[in-house]
Amino acid sequence: MAAYLKHLGRRKEWTREGVSVTYAYEGTEAGIDALLAGHVIGEGSDDGTLAAKSKEQVGGSIWGAELRYEISGDGGGSATPPSNAWGSKSATLRGSMLSMPLQNHPSYRAKWDHYLVAAPGVPAMTPIWWDTASSVLLSGAAGKEYRWIAALSDIPTTGGAQWQVIMEPTKPGTSSYEVATYSITETAKYKTASAAGSAVAGKLNKIGAPDETFGITGGNWKCDDASVQYDGKRWLATTTWTRSGDSRGWDAELYD
Question: Which of 19, 92, 93, 221 is deepest in the core (most CB within 10 A)?
Answer without folding.
Answer: 221
